[in-house]
Amino acid sequence: MAKTILHKAATRGHVNHGWLESHHTFSFANYYNPDRMRFGALRVLNDDTVAGGRGFDTHPHDNMEIISIPLEGALEHKDNLGNTVVTQAGEIQVMSTGTGVFHSEYNANADATARFLQIWLFPNKLNVTPRYDQATINIADRKNTLQQLISPDPNGEGTWLYQDAWFHMGRFDKNASTEYTVKQSGNGVYFFVISGSFSVNGQELGPRDGYGIEDLQQANITALEDNAEILVIDIPIFS
Question: Which residue numbers delimit the Pirin N-terminal domain (predicted)?
Fold first, then answer.
């Protein structure tokens, strides 16, 4: 029987620094909840809003796969690998921090808010050579279907990372439905609603709700209103 965990949006950790407002699905920084440390290899899912011209100063990471998915506005990324790039909605960035990376992440616009999802995964390979990758995704291709953003395959659609994980996003009309089949035995799936509302295997989910399911092979996803958008993370489960 499938094992589930429901994270309602209002129960997430929350911090407001003025320039940054962030909601934490899992324990992060000053938010600690022993029941919310991770979902398998999924360690961090932060829902960040950054004021114009502000951002995260240069800081280090190692041995973590870090994904940024812009939802509104644009982010400027700089790192000690020599990358200076801007990412906006319709694009996705992955950083394999491996042996160590220093980077900064700023709102690229001085007069507009930036909103993005910051996601961290435990890698399946430690101390790799650090890398940065960015992919452009045609948002129109996710209408009433799940569009692949990330996979373990360097030659796959979107971009890739050091983990047996798959990311998909879909934007659905009301009552549109799809079936999602788990990619790998032993993986679970974490569903995160970006906007609108969905039913996932009968569980109703609203904006920014998260829902993890272990021990399943397939899930039914049905939009309950128009222009509803969902992120699906297929991820290894381990104790």
Answer: 13-121
